[in-house]
Structures are given as structure tokens and as C-alpha cells.
UniProtKB/TrEMBL annotation:
It comes from Caballeronia glathei. This is Fis family transcriptional regulator. It comes from the Bacteria. Transmembrane segments: none annotated. It is found in: Cytoplasm. PANTHER family: KDP OPERON TRANSCRIPTIONAL REGULATORY PROTEIN KDPE, REGULATOR OF RPOS. The lineage of its organism: Bacteria, Pseudomonadati, Pseudomonadota, Betaproteobacteria, Burkholderiales. GO terms for molecular function: cis-regulatory region sequence-specific DNA binding; identical protein binding; phosphorelay response regulator activity. The keyword Acetylation does not apply.
């Protein structure tokens, strides 16, 4: 099996070296770029399977680089940034990023985020699961028949609840912003009604999580959106 190819676009050499050494210890091949211009060149020539991009680059905003990459690349993008405002995170995700990590960060979290994105990309590029059934925890969901089973028992979901769950499954591993989910599930005109999400996510957790107050699968990214965790291949 070939090593995953990772491109790190980061202007601080110490951070690039830290990331490179951390990922190389996990048997990954790492390429580096110090600015957006070099990042565009390296991404085109190296064809990385995942990109790690800093938002504060010397020759432009990392969000602009992500938008440009999304014109031709579907490789997962993990954003690194010292900017911790929720608006920055939402803008990066809406630009096409898949996940974000706020500086400073630890090696275990970095590795976990990278591996999660590589797993998701593998599922997508292989055409997804062989059948319409997906599983996470003790839950199985049949996307064709709309059947949901938890611990061997059928679970009734309303049509809206099922559309929300299906949207999370389609975006597995990604942080999906409130606006992305609202437009996907409810359609145009609902992008600024996050209260809809709170209500329906609450009912989904009541039906699917062992402890709805501490969800393991329907995970909140505070003030940004939600992600589905723990999907089985």
C-alpha cells in the first residue's frame, strides 16, 4: 500500500517541520509549501491526497487558495489557523475546507483529524459502501428504504429527521456548517434559521444516541455546525 501524500501549506518553517515530522512518523509522505503560490504549484504537481492549509499566508488568504483548489481538486482540506473566531471557521468551511484545527494543537489531535479525512476520502473515491446500508455504533441506516435500526430495534424517523441524518452521512467526516445543512435539508430561504437544526438534531440524538447529552456520533462543532463520527466502512 502506498503512503498517503500530504501537502502542508504553512509560512512558519518551525510549524511545517513539526507537522512533517509528526506525519512522517505515521508513515505518510509530506510535501511543503511556504505560501499560496507555491501551494498551488505543489498541489498540481504532487496531487496530494490531503492538504493542510494555514489561513494566514504571506501572499494571500488561505480561504482564497481553498476556493481555487476546489475548482479542480476534491482532496480533503484541513485548515490550520491561529484565528479562533467562529466566523473565520465558518468562512473556511464554506470556502470548501473539510475540517479545521486551531493553533496551538497537539500531535494526537492532528493525527486523528488527518486519518479521519483520509478515511472519508477513501470511502468517497471507492464509490462508498457496497450497499445502501451504512453503520455507526449500534445503528444501521438503509438509505434506499429509509429504514433505521438501533440495537436490533426499528427506529421511526420523520421525513425531515431522515433527510438531516442522510445529509450528515453524505458529509461524513466533514464539519457541516449550519447554513450548509439548512440549505441541504430545508432548501433555499432557510439558511438563516439555525433553530430548525437545534430542534431536529435534539430529536435525532434522543432517538439514536445512548446518552443524548454526550453524543458520540452526532457531534456539535460549537457555533459552527455538526459532524457525523464513527461511520463503519
Amino acid at each position: 500500500m502506498s503512503k498517503p501524500r500530504i501537502l502542508v501549506v504553512e509560512d512558519e518553517s518551525d510549524i511545517r517541520r513539526f507537522i512533517r515530522l509528526s506525519l512522517e512518523r505515521e508513515d505518510m509522505t509530506v510535501f511543503e509549501a511556504a505560501d499560496a503560490s507555491q501551494g498551488r504549484i505543489e498541489s498540481a504537481s504532487r496531487q496530494p491526497e490531503l492538504l493542510i492549509i494555514d489561513l494566514g499566508l504571506p501572499d494571500g488568504d488561505g480561504k482564497d487558495l481553498i476556493r481555487q483548489l476546489r475548482g479542480w481538486s476534491s482532496a480533503p482540506v484541513l485548515v490550520l489557523s491561529a484565528r479562533d473566531r467562529e466566523e473565520e471557521k465558518v468562512e473556511a468551511l464554506n470556502a470548501g475546507a473539510d475540517d479545521f484545527l486551531t493553533k496551538p494543537f497537539g500531535v494526537p489531535e492532528l493525527i486523528a483529524r488527518v486519518r479521519a479525512q483520509l478515511r472519508r476520502a477513501s470511502i468517497v473515491t471507492s464509490g462508498g459502501p457496497a450497499s445502501s446500508i451504512v453503520r455507526f455504533g449500534d445503528i444501521s441506516v438503509d438509505l434506499a428504504t429509509y429504514e433505521v435500526i438501533r440495537a436490533g430495534e426499528a427506529v421511526h424517523l420523520t421525513p425531515t429527521e431522515f433527510r438531516l441524518l442522510a445529509a450528515l452521512i453524505r458529509g461524513y467526516g466533514r464539519v457541516l456548517t449550519h447554513r450548509q445543512l439548512l440549505l441541504d435539508v430545508w432548501g433555499p430561504g432557510y439558511g438563516d434559521r439555525p433553530q430548525y437544526l437545534r430542534v431536529y438534531m435534539g430529536t435525532l440524538r434522543q432517538k439514536l444516541e445512548a446518552d443524548p447529552t454526550r453524543p458520540l456520533h452526532l457531534v456539535t462543532e460549537l457555533q459552527v455546525g455538526y459532524r457525523l463520527a464513527g461511520l463503519s466502512n
